[in-house]
Structures are given as structure tokens and as C-alpha cells.
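thread: overnight batch results

M.L. [08:02]
morning all. the overnight job finished for the chain we discussed friday. pasting input first so we're all looking at the same thing
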Amino acid sequence: MARPLGSVRLALKLAAAEQPGTIRDLAARAQVGYAQAHFTVKNMAQKGELVVVGRRDVPWRPAPVQVYAPASWPCAERPARSPRPDAELQNTLLAVWR
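M.L. [08:03]
and the structure it wrote out:
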């Protein structure tokens, strides 16, 4: 039997399910420390629980930071290709946004 999720991991998972965000956003929403959130989010991403869905410019860093969402989040999955032109445009925009 698997061990239950820790309180930090559970809080970060719920925060990411509420809305995707950077590690700092998820830490603030989950009300956990940044250092613990940084370690846990990286671990969750490595395990496949969270995925990077894009990058965002932030004022505190010169380079864009990664935005995380749960693996089950709709934008985390690549949409199926469709012969419809509007679906092709949507797929292209989603690929560029990532």
C-alpha cells in the first residue's frame, strides 16, 4: 500500500489544480515556504504529477520562469490533430505558447 501524500505535496497539488502558476505562485497559494515548495514542485515534475505548461516573464528574474499545472490539466495534454483548419490553428498556438 502506498504512503499517503504529505501535507506540502497535497497543498501544492491542490494549488496547481486551482490554477497553474510558477513555484512562487503555488507556494503562496498553498501557504508553504518557498524553499520547500521549490524542492517539492521539482520532485513532483520529475515524477510526472506536475507538468510545465509554459513560461512567464516575472519582475524578479531576467529570464522567464516555468509555469506548472497538474498532468491532468487540459492544456497539459497535446490536442489530437484534426483536419479542420481552426483546430490546426489552435494546435499551432498551443505549441507556440508552450
